[in-house]
Design goal:
Chain lengths: 137, 422
């Protein structure tokens, strides 16, 4: 019984670790939650606008561990697949490339100052008044 | 390639590295790709592949600007030695020396009404299969060249862009996945000395003009609820693809003057099925295409008893098929390897045949490395049976009796390619 409990606890921790990335959006959007399908659509270039009509601006931190974890959990792609997808989009002119920055602090700063921006951070505590932490439902 | 293409591209690359360059709200991207190809027999992809060639190269720079949240403008210029200006000579063959050609690739305004509907107006790409819209983008695929059984470079002038309108969108099907749609309609300019012409022209036939009334088509691509799996269907139609040709009849009868001939394809339809599955580091892809054509011929100055020329004037149906299957595996975050089989036949229902100019079976292995996020290096080797996808003058010296087959049935080629992009 003790062994089963340990396994269940370990699985729970693994699950929590996979969902650790916090999604943030520009506070001006007034958005509190985002559907999982919409989040995937934004990051794979198929959803260009928020319900309000504002243009979606993606902010990523490709050199971080959070990048790989976020893509795997919410977009279903590896970093290389994500990079290839966006080369296809950019070189057909369909959308602007995601804005790439380094670290949580830069993500928060970029999302806070960019209307329509959405990004992710590894530590929810890094969020500030310019961004809103959203629930992925 | 002309230094005028290379210099600004390299300068931009040096300045931009992996990131886009942005000035005043206009975002710039670009790439430069240089390949080397060599074949042991048959001229393939480039004009002098048997000697080894660096003509497999291209470069592009694009600019895009969001005027509003929903209105966007984008344009790209593209240059390549591969699609350069061959100089057709009177005999109907092509000069081997080409000059790189820089073209306006795409240029359009795009308005997104909703996720499910958007429009593009201008010079737009044809949505067709997994790769047609990105057929020039080496960094967007695993292989150095696309499977020619489906993405035949020789048809690029007809199958890549239209000057007209395109629609696009994505429907969220909830638990059933997502459905992307795309459609296009427009005009296409086909140069008389381009790659389409080279499919037909040899010492017996030359072309004066090639035109098409309109090209239109569409695509549905369904992302299934199974993660990583999508499948689609594409269709394309070319309306009244026509050419004014000249039969150089003097080749078989010195007293016979050249015969002008008009060729009209009143049917030219493409059908393509696509499927792709990605799981972790594994990618599997397959596409199957059929092309149906019906052509009629009219000619003047036809000698009444010339059975040979009369044979040119018979309405012709063609039903070709091509497919490929590709598997690639990412051995390391920056290293990928795989294999591809690409099969093509000019006759859909033809069984085993000895005419190797009517089929081409290509078996390839490839490997690639992302040296950085913006610099890729690839190499691949292919063993080939058949020669159906070679240009006309590389298959046979002519169409009339007495012409000689110049292609070889069993052959191989090697391609290496490096691409930098920002």
């Amino acid at each position: 019984m003790h062994r089963i409990s340990s396994i269940l606890l370990a699985l729970a921790l693994i699950g929590a670790a996979g969902a650790a990335e916090t999604v943030i959006v520009n506070a001006g959007l007034g958005v509190k939650e985002v559907a999982a399908g919409d989040l995937e659509g934004m990051f794979d270039g198929k959803k260009a606008n928020w319900p309000s009509g504002a243009k979606v601006v993606l902010v990523t931190q490709p050199e971080s561990a959070a990048h790989e974890a976020f893509l795997k959990a919410h977009v279903g792609k590896s970093p290389s697949q994500f990079a290839t997808l966006w080369k296809k989009i950019v070189f057909t002119g369909k959308a602007n490339a995601p804005v790439a920055v380094k670290g949580d602090a830069e993500v928060v700063a970029m999302v806070a100052k960019t209307p329509g921006a959405i990004g992710y951070v590894s530590d929810a505590a890094s969020a500030n008044a310019g961004v809103t932490v959203v629930t992925v439902k | 390639m002309r230094p005028s293409i290379i210099a600004p591209t390299l300068l931009l690359l040096a300045a931009g590295a992996a990131q886009a360059v942005e000035f005043g709200g206009i975002e710039f991207h670009g790439f430069y790709s240089q390949g080397y190809t060599i074949s042991d027999k048959n001229e393939w992809l480039v004009d002098r592949s048997q000697h080894g060639s660096f003509d497999l190269n291209d470069a592009a720079v694009n600019a895009s600007f969001d005027a509003t949240d929903r209105l966007r403008f984008a344009a790209q210029i593209y240059g390549s030695d591969l699609y350069g200006d061959p100089q057709m000579v009177n005999s109907g063959s092509f000069d081997q020396k080409k000059a790189a050609k820089v073209n306006l690739d795409y240029a359009y305004g795009q308005y997104t009404f909703a996720d499910a509907i958007g429009l593009r107006l201008g010079r737009v790409k044809q949505a067709y299969g997994l790769y047609n819209e990105v057929r020039d983008i080496d960094a967007a695929r695993s292989t150095a060249i696309l499977p020619q059984s489906v993405y035949d470079n020789r048809d690029r002038e007809l199958n890549y862009l239209v000057n007209g309108i395109a629609g696009f969108g994505t429907f969220d099907l909830a638990k059933a996945g997502k459905l992307e749609w795309a459609g296009y309609y427009g005009a296409v300019n086909i140069p008389v000395d381009g790659t389409i012409a080279k499919q037909y022209v040899n010492s017996d036939v030359s072309l004066d003009e090639v035109s098409v009334d309109a090209v239109y088509g569409g695509q549905l691509m369904w992302s299934l609820p199974v993660e990583g799996l999508r499948m689609g269907f594409s269709y394309r139609n070319a309306d009244n693809l026509a050419s004014d040709a000249v039969i150089n009849a003097g080749a078989f009868n010195p007293f016979q003057p050249a015969v002008p001939m008009a060729v009209v394809f009143d049917e030219y339809k493409y059908y393509l099925g696509s499927i792709e599955y990605t799981s972790g580091d594994l990618t599997l892809q397959a596409e199957y295409q059929r092309v149906l054509t019906h052509s009629t011929y009219t000619a003047g100055n036809v000698p009444p008893f010339s059975a040979i020329i009369q044979s040119f004037l018979t309405p012709t149906d063609m039903d070709s098929q091509g497919w490929y299957a590709l598997a690639s595996y990412r051995l390391h975050p920056r290293v990928e390897a795989g294999a591809v089989v690409a099969i093509y036949s000019t006759k859909y229902d033809e069984g085993k045949t000895d005419d190797w100019n009517s089929y081409q079976n290509d078996f390839g292995v490839f490997a690639g490395c992302n040296l950085t996020d913006w610099w890729t290096l690839k190499a691949e080797y292919h063993y080939v049976e058949g020669a159906a996808l070679l240009d006309a003058q590389n298959r046979e010296t002519g169409y009339f009796p007495g012409s000689q087959t110049v292609s070889t049935e069993y052959w191989s080629y090697f391609v290496a390619r490096t691409t930098v992009s920002f």
